[in-house]
Amino acid sequence: MSELSLGELPMESWMSHLPCALWDIPLYHLSIPGSHNAITYCLDMNDRSPVDLTQPDMLQKLDKYMKPLIRPFVYKWAKTQEYTIKQQLDCGVRYCDLRIAQRPNDSSTDLYFYHGVYTTLTVETVLMEIREWLDAHPKEVVILSFSHFLGLSQELHMLLLTTIRKAFTSKLCPKTEVLTLRNLWALGYQVIVSYEHNIASCHGDLWPHIPYWWANKCKAEALIEEFEHRKQHGRPGGFFVTGINLTEDLKYICTHPTESLKDLVVSTYPTLLSWVKEQTPGSRVGSLNIIAGDFITESHFVPTVVTLNEKLLKWSS
């Protein structure tokens, strides 16, 4: 391998530029950058859009009666990404956390994403955008994690499945497949869909739910401590996500009234990413796989995660 750092590869096509020593390593042993709550760049700012039904009852009531006061807070803390899905993929993101919902009182069968509030873009629109991007980047592979499914009936699940299949057709990787880049390239598979619902077991193209290590903390040091504790117990066998996304509680929001989630993320990324740099992908106890964050363009997050794959080259050489 040349002396070029993997972090200096063109991020829109970093997978296709990986050295051939990594082509036969399963994707769940590589270090892969991910986007936490990937579609929050288009949250519905319209006051008519309800706060999602999973929010505490108190917040829903406040939102209903004190909308002008509460709404700006909801947006400032619910928005985890600023860039569109295509821009995120261009930046090197290869795992997307997709939380699906039907809007309440919506008579149509349209599905949306949500985090605090619902998105303006439908699931179908976003999946077609991903499809277009993949057509232009035939050697990149994305992992799409569908979860939460707020208000989805069995019929809507089937409709969502049809939408997924229509968007990705022959690019959808069946769950019997060997997940190395060499094999996926040979077969033209570019999309791995994980689906956090028991219907996944009945469908050959829906991979099971991908575990997400999430450490409900609003301080970087506490988050790192939690992950170090988890690492001692060993990594799951297949894909898994370490979410370096901090979680603010109502107390934090109320004591930082002029801040937003982005302020919190920007101020803590240096600490979090210096921890990420010490991590190693692979199969060993304590290894990491997908690392997902908020505001993925900040602080060289993506190249930092991609660079970790150099550690696999040192072992294999």
TrEMBL record:
Gene Ontology BP terms: lipid metabolic process
Record Pfam families: PI-PLC-X
Species classification: Eukaryota, Metazoa, Chordata, Craniata, Vertebrata
Family matches, as InterPro entries: PI-PLC_domain, PLC-like_Pdiesterase_TIM-brl, PLCXD1/2/3, PLipase_C_PInositol-sp_X_dom
Full protein name: Phosphatidylinositol-specific phospholipase C, X domain containing 1
GO molecular function terms noted in the UniProt entry: phosphoric diester hydrolase activity
Domain Phosphatidylinositol-specific phospholipase C X: 24-196
Gene3D superfamilies reported in the protein's UniProt record: Phosphatidylinositol (PI) phosphodiesterase
